[in-house]
Amino acid sequence: KAGVTQTPRYLIKTRGQQVTLSCSPISGHRSVSWYQQTPGQGLQFLFEYFSETQRNKGNFPGRFSGRQFSNSRSEMNVSTLELGDSALYLCASSRDREEREQYFGPGTRLTVT
Amino acid sequence: SQQGEEDPQALSIQEGENATMNCSYKTSINNLQWYRQNSGRGLVHLILIRSNEREKHSGRLRVTLDTSKKSSSLLITASRAADTASYFCATYLSGGYNKLIFGAGTRLAVHP
pLDDT tens digits, residue range A47-105? Predict the structure, then answer.
């Protein structure tokens, strides 16, 4: 089985711009979660989608949004980028049952200048 | 604040030695997981231990869980240079669906 894929792998944007990151989960996985990793805050949960519905959301401003498509692929969008949004954004997928192991993609490294 | 906290923050050992990392958490859990991350890359799931288990093994990995103390430990035996990575414990908040809460991680350096 192919693993979780994320595109793009690297991205450089300027303040005020918006960005869309994409995640394709492992085939058969319907849950997709997004995490932000920074040196200062560590790994923080952004949101989780299951069957195209957002089931859970972390403590992030409304500039961070996401969606999931019928094929379970997911996108996250960050609008009006700030310098502090520079981070590694990780996507993870898991099986239908809750509280199982999650499988992570390689991440998208976003740099905001 | 984070659910899990790892100790130590950094660990430096020689190849062949054992590495022990500890994790503490704050609320009741159904399971606890350990993940590895190689420098700035994605996380790899290592092992999941359920709340009714006290110890679990996987290859050179041994994980213990003490729910009375809300703590877990990860032991890597006979470490190799390839084990150099950051290790994170993670738990799910009750009713949080697939919302994983990670600790700050332990940076392990294994020197040849």
Answer: 999 999 998 899 999 999 999 999 999 999 999 999 999 999 999 999 866 668 899 99
CB atoms within 10 A of CB A49: 27
Query: By a Cβ cutoff of 8 Å, what residues of chain A touch chain B?
Result: 4, 31, 33, 35, 42-45, 48, 50, 55-56, 58, 88, 90, 92, 94, 98-107, 109
HSE-up (13 A, CA, CB side) for residue A24: 8
Q: Would you say A84 and A78 are in contact if contact means Cβ atoms under 8 Å apart? A: no
Whether the ω angle into residue A8 lies within 30 degrees of 0, i.e. cis, is yes
- Distance separating alpha carbons of residues B79 and A17, to the nearest angstrom: 45
